[in-house]
Amino acid sequence: MHDTDHTGPVAEERPAKPSGSAAGPGDREAPPAIAVSRLSKTYDSGFQALRGIDLEVSRGEIFGLLGPNGAGKTTLISIICGLVNATSGRVRVDGYDNVADYRAVRSRVGLVPQELATESFETVWDTVRFSRGLFGRPPDAAHLEKVLRDLALWEKRDSKIMSLSGGMKRRLLIAKALAHEPRILFLDEPTAGVDVDLRHDMWEVVRVLRESGVTVVLTTHYIEEAEEMADRVGVINNGELVVVEEKAELMRKLGGKRLTLHLREPLAEIPPGLEHRRLELGADGFELTYTYDADGREEGVAELLTELGEAGIHFADLHTEQRSLEDIFVSLVREGR
Fold first, then answer.
1. Cα within 13 Å of Cα(288), Cβ side
2. Is the pLDDT of residue 58 over 50?
3. Does the domain at residues 255-336 carry the CATH identifier 2.60.40?
4. CB 132 within 8 A of CB 180
5. How far apart are CA 223 and CA 330, in angstroms?
6. Counting CB atoms within 10 angstroms of each CB, which of 80, 121, 151, 255 has the fewest?
7. Greatest CA separation found in the chain?
8. Are strands 257-263 and 287-292 parallel, antiparallel or unpaired?
9. Which residue from 166, 165, 186 is spatially nearest to 177, judged by alpha carbons?
10. Residue 175 has pLDDT above 80, yes or no
11. Residue 112 pLDDT > 70, yes or no?
12. What percent of the chain has pLDDT over 70?
């Protein structure tokens, strides 16, 4: 992307050691890709966009940041990338302080913004070459060709940006962000406004990037996007991180399962003796739903079916379903209000 920060385009600087850190070649563990500590942001209007955010993102993971509009997602990644100043707190990227060592940080991150802001009269090739030069990187036609091929843009390299479809422009934003070979890529609503097929193609591009060692942080309104791609998920609401958890563990803890029984005869109410079960009766009396924890005992289902049989309740069909990440997200946001 074109650099709009007041510092202007800069060449990469390589301090001997990240500021304020004892990290060095002989250390046992490399620093996390991103480390955010007690980060807050209050705008001049008095609006507090972020409230004491603590977050670490590991190297090589795909981290999904979910939240409703205005929750603070874009503000958080803009501060990490050095485009917005924090009110308080600290950010380290690859061990470098994003204020004291901002040049080292800027050279290590790529940002794909929500807005499709591009120079319409430039060609695809010229704009990615220019983006690489903004960060002081030497010309590397082979790298740029690989980026464009990976994003299915190579055949459009001589086309003017104004002639591209919306989906291709979205891919071009990713190409620009990758032109200087960042190790951490931020995708702010990367598939907004693109069709389903292209969305799945772009998911595959992100997986390939992760396999090459790039750390990916994505914000998204598409819950299926995080469910499909992310290793870990963070939910932000009203400027606060409500939860940060490995996706599989979050689904295990909060997912829950539902067993729906389609009854042969309608019920007017749940029979006496079954009140201790978490049962819900459908409005028409023909559906009985049992909710139980995802990590609960499966034997509980068998016990329930036995009790229903003893109560003279018979069913024609049944099915189970796992609570989705979208269900969990909605419940967490509601609880945080």
1. 25
2. yes
3. no
4. yes
5. 10
6. 121
7. 78
8. antiparallel
9. 186
10. yes
11. yes
12. 78
Q: How far apart are CA 50 and CA 43, in angstroms?
A: 10
User: In the structure, what pLDDT confidence band is assigned to residue 30 with cuts at 50, 70 and 90?
Assistant: confident
Burial of 16 (0-12, 13-18, 19+ CB in 10 A): exposed
CA distance 33 to 61: 9
pLDDT of residue 127: 94
| Degrees, nearest 5: CA angle 217-336-92 | 30
In the prediction, which pLDDT does 298 show? 52
Cβ neighbours for 75, distance < 8 A, ≥ 6 positions apart? 41, 49, 50, 84, 239
Q: Looking at residue 141, what is its pLDDT?
A: 96
Q: What is the mean pLDDT of residues 118-122?
A: 77
Q: What are the Cα distances from residue 43, in Å, to 46, 49, 75, 87?
A: 5, 7, 11, 8
φ, ψ dihedrals at 260, nearest 5°: -110, 125
Nearest to 289 by CA among 310, 255, 318: 318
Domain over 34-251 is classified CATH 3.40.50.720: no
What is the overall mean pLDDT for the chain? 80
Could you tell me the strand order of the sheet in which 48-57 lies?
Answer: 48-57, 34-42, 88-93, 96-97
Pairing relationship of beta strands 62-66 and 48-57 according to DSSP bridges: unpaired
pTM equals 0.69
Amino acid residing at 36: V
Length of the chain measured in residues: 337
What band does 21 get if pLDDT is binned at 50, 70 and 90? very low
In this structure, which amino acid lies at residue 74? Answer: T
Q: Which residues pair with 34 in a beta bridge?
A: 57, 93
- How would you list the strands of the sheet with 109-112, edge to edge? 109-112, 184-188, 215-220, 62-66, 232-237, 240-246
Query: Token pair 């958080």 is at which residue?
Result: 76
| Alpha-carbon torsion angle 269, 272, 276, 279, nearest 10 | -20
For the chain, the domains span: 34-251, 255-336
